[in-house]
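Table S2 (continued). Query chain:
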Amino acid sequence: MTRPIVELCRLLPNHSATGRGGGRRDSGIAGPAVGVRRLTPTECERLQGLPDGWTDLGGTSDSRRYSALGDAVTASVAEWIGRRLLNAGAPRSEAMSSLKESTA
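Corresponding output:
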């Protein structure tokens, strides 16, 4: 049986089920010192397959960097999709061999 998202949100410490913030009592599942830390902009760049400092354009604020990274498409995923689109019209055996070459 699946639980509604609102019920699941109530199980998370320090989060509001409505998404509007505000105070709420601790669920007792995790203490107030336990939580998930925010990723740094550099860690987000690495997850996107970008080099360190890619979004730091000389003093760019972290919130602008997060915004740019949130709007980004992971380069390796975009390449994979592009290759699939290019091979869509090719015969199946030819398309499979070029996909194997690109992942090697």
